[in-house]
Amino acid sequence: MDVLADRRIPLEVCPQSNVRTGALALQLRRPAATIEDHPLPALFRHGIPIVLSTDDPAMFHTTLAEEYEHAHRLGMTESELLRMAQMSFDFAFDRQHTRTTS
Fold it and tell me: In this model, does residue 2 exceed pLDDT 60?
């Protein structure tokens, strides 16, 4: 987590997808996980840039607004949610963080 924060490496996080695919449960080494188990607030508060996303809205039955509602339910403040939304724009248009292939 320190490397991600120090180097300002953004993570695209899709909480509902993480729950529905079982990826969160696997990461937590549990048979099942709920949205309340998601580490999103801890990642954000550690200083890791987060871009909140939906993955595949039709497959995971979610919207970006619902993902922000989940983040709020996880205890993220309005100020944190606004900063996270701003990060989405900042990193979408930051050429330094675009992938390059060689």
Answer: yes
Residue 41 vs residue 60, higher pLDDT: 41
61: closest CA among 11, 13, 20, 12?
20
Give the model confidence (pLDDT) of 50-63 as tens digits.
Answer: 999 998 878 888 89
Give the Cα separation of 30 and 24 in Å (integer).
9
For the whole model, what pTM was predicted?
0.84
